[in-house]
Amino acid sequence: MTSSTRRRGVFLVWPQEYELSQHLADNLGLRLLLIQAKNPNSPVLFRYFNQSVRTIRWLNKHKPQFVFIQNPPLMACLIVYFYSIFHRQTKIGIDNHSVFFRSKKWVLWHSFFKPIAQRAVINTAHNKYDLRILKQWGVNCQEMQFINPIYRKSLTKSPLKNLRWKRWKKKLKQAKVSVFMVNRFAKDDDDYITVMRAAKRKPNWIFFITGDSSKASQTELQFAPSNVIFTGYLNHSEFLKLMQKCSVTLCLTLRENTILWSIREAMALRKVFVTSDTKALREYFSGVGIFTERRSPKDLIRKIRHAVTSTSIYQEKINLFLKNDSVRIKEEIVEIKKAMGQSL
Question: pTM for the full model?
Fold first, then answer.
């Protein structure tokens, strides 16, 4: 895609987490357009109103020919949808995340989304299960699995000298095994309760659980053993650095038919990962990941121990997976560009 196409096309993101979209935008030759909430903790209606106004102003000023949108939130899609109706030179594409198809919060809004998806020249889904839903709606769609990120060494080797990191480094040296859990405290998705129960059985191990712990109930958190550290929200550099320092990464989900971006991040750092034993995850990562029963602290401990004792074996498997998977990525990107090219 030429530089002029890059100027004409953007990848619009409202959420605070945008790493996945950054990689897809780069491969599609699109500029990443971040219109994020100035205060992420403010009420959702205030955030959406502010982001809607800023998005409309940007669209009116720059008049892009193509807008790819990260979905959810649905409101971002809705704003661009109406803009494209009144400005027919603007075509849209939608990158649909699995949470939109699996979370009860978003499933209720599917009937509102269908006409938006039907107007898009391309809808992407991150796995074949989500793709089936889009096909049932009769929209133009294609599977686009996550793109394997490539991180600069400087991103994970940058010095972090704050007091929190000094304490963590000390604990990392003392612990027999260090475990990094990718977590957002989403009750219908993140199995942090099982991880805390596993930690209680292994006091000589240390467990870092990421995410804003204020989203969990105090009743849940007060039973966490002393070898569990709630990191709070980490910026991306801190997130990767801590993942790299730990022995094992946990990429767990309570949902069916969900493919986790955190697995790609772990593989980018050549970290052995333990993930949930679901049909979808086995289908996509069999042979490269270690699978654990959901809600089973006993099995999780067993699989973490296996990961630690088999690190070099799984690192070789990860290297081979990434090499083979690069072919798949190129093919999917070519197909998406064809759909976009008809509109640019």
Answer: 0.88
